[in-house]
Design goal:
This protein is an alpha/beta fold. The protein is built from twelve helices and ten strands. It has a single domain, classed as TIM Barrel (Alpha-Beta Barrel), CATH 3.20.20.70.
């Protein structure tokens, strides 16, 4: 691995080998998501506790201050919306030249394995890796399932992650599931946990993050379960404790409750 690739990976994955990525790219298919109507205001108190920001070029340019930012993972796929026919029908929307212009530390795109557009999105990944490798930019593959959340089991996610790694992704973002160790152990590159829709309880998110970390994930890519929380800063502090301090879910919940009481 060349120096540039190693350097960029070290920007998003911290010296302890762990990471807390905060995605705010949801608007590329969901539009003005709840609590993300004004992304700049939402992320301002959360940036100090995030290791990298997963974001589209439009929101990056318009809402993220260039003089007080964190490493950027640039979302480079899209072309569909939540009201369209099929979320899986994505293409590459942003060039590597644009990623370099925006000083991105990594780029990310979705693959929809098992969908009608499986081949298309996997070839998108392959094309992106080919171009990104030329400039030493790591690619994060997102194992998306569209609206079909029932697909999130260990057998399916292991298949998705392994294929993404085989095609050259340096990091894979995937959902937590039962027997998550089977997913991680069969993937030869680092795995980060996706959040998906906001959980019903605060403890639920802390528990799946803690379980995923214990079973081999290097961190999370969590958005709605942080910034849609009624107490986003206490929640990101609690999650950060699980990732970087090896806190248990119960210990993290104590941090969450303690931080909520602070003015």
């Amino acid at each position: 691995m060349d120096w540039g690739m190693k350097n960029r990976l070290s920007q998003i994955i911290k010296p302890d080998g762990k990471c807390l990525f905060m995605p705010i790219d949801h608007g590329y298919f969901l539009g003005p998501t709840s609590k993300l109507e004004k992304p700049g205001e939402t992320i301002k108190p959360l940036l100090p506790y995030s290791d990298a920001l997963f974001v589209t070029r439009g929101v990056l340019r318009s809402c993220v201050p260039p003089d007080n930012s964190i490493p950027i993972i640039l979302r480079v796929s899209g072309g569909t919306s939540v009201i369209g026919k099929d979320l899986a029908n994505e293409g590459i929307t942003t060039s590597i030249k644009e990623a370099i212009r925006l000083n991105a530390s990594a780029v990310g795109l979705s693959v929809f394995i098992g969908s009608e557009y499986e081949r298309q999105t996997l070839l998108n990944l392959s094309t992106l890796v080919n171009e990104a490798e030329e400039y030493g930019i790591p690619v994060m593959a997102v194992t998306a399932v569209g609206k079909e959340l029932e697909k999130r089991d260990a057998r399916y996610l292991s298949l998705c992650c392994r294929i993404a790694a085989e095609l050259g992704a340096k990091v894979v973002k995937t959902y937590w599931c039962e027997n998550f160790d089977k997913v991680v152990n069969s993937c030869p590159v680092p795995v980060v946990i996706a959040g998906g829709p906001k959980t019903e309880t605060d403890m639920e998110v802390l528990e799946f993050v803690a379980d995923g970390m214990q079973k081999g994930a290097i961190g999370v890519n969590l958005g709605r379960n942080i910034w849609q929380n009624a107490h986003p800063v206490p929640m990101i502090k609690a999650i950060r404790a699980i990732i970087h301090e090896n806190a248990s879910a119960k210990e993290a919940n104590k941090i969450f409750e303690r931080e909520k009481k602070k003015k």
